[in-house]
User: Which sequence fits this backbone?
């Protein structure tokens, strides 16, 4: 039986900027991948050629789809939450939407941001982390959202971590990692996926030197498992599955 991995993000470009290596490596080994994005990124600082929020959202939806294609993502979905306002979302309702998708896709592994909000400490990233963490646990419990498909308990939940910080930004407080992914074999693929986000080209240029220096690796923390076990260091999100 083939493995499945679900990645939950807040904005178009998160899937490649933060998780591109993990997604590309998984696709290369035949893992069925699904990226769920909660907003269409209308509040972005970089707005490309758009003249309105709706126009930017449409542009970024198309960029997201193109990026997922480059990364070999088999399923991608973009929801309708408001960019920059996730902290004001009804938590139970939003978590329920994630629970339903976890139960229908039935992933073995779920990956998302850490509670620190990632390298830019974005509040939307923090909320996505909290929503996904709750949904990971609730999806396996029959008493939670009993009308939303059959319960499914994914085997592992990972939060994104980091071994470096962005210059000129207040540093986050990342969770200590347990997984170091060597993504050098797919690093060019990750870069090409980011290039699909033409509206965000200034961000790519601004971070280019940092990613050239540190971009050969991604770090993740194993934060929940289906079986009790001690923490240990590894180089594979799917080891033993």
Assistant:
């Amino acid at each position: 039986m083939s493995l499945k991995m679900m990645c939950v993000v807040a904005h178009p470009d998160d899937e490649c900027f933060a998780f591109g290596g993990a997604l590309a490596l998984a696709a290369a080994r035949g893992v069925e991948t699904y990226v769920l994005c909660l907003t269409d990124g209308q509040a972005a600082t970089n707005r490309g050629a758009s003249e309105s929020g709706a126009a930017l959202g449409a542009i970024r939806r198309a960029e997201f789809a193109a990026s997922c294609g480059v990364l070999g993502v088999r399923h991608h979905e973009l929801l309708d939450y408001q960019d920059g306002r996730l902290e004001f979302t009804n938590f139970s309702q939003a978590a329920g939407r994630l629970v339903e998708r976890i139960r229908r896709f039935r992933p073995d592994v779920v990956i998302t941001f850490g509670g620190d909000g990632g390298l830019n400490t974005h509040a939307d990233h923090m909320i996505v982390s909290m929503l996904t963490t709750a949904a990971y646990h609730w999806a396996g419990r029959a008493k939670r959202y009993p009308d939303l498909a059959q319960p499914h308990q994914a085997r592992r939940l990972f939060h994104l971590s980091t071994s470096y910080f962005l210059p000129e930004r207040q540093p986050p407080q990342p969770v200590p990692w347990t997984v170091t992914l060597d993504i050098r074999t797919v690093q060019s693929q990750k870069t090409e996926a980011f290039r699909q986000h033409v509206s965000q080209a200034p961000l790519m240029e601004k971070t280019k030197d940092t990613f050239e220096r540190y971009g050969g690796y991604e770090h993740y923390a194993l934060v929940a498992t289906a079986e009790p076990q001690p923490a240990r260091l590894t180089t594979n999100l799917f080891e033993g599955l």
Remarks:
- The longest helix spans residues 53-70.
- The chain has a mean pLDDT of 94.
- The domain at 4-225 is CATH 3.40.50.10320 (Rossmann fold).
- The first strand starts at residue 4 and ends at 9.
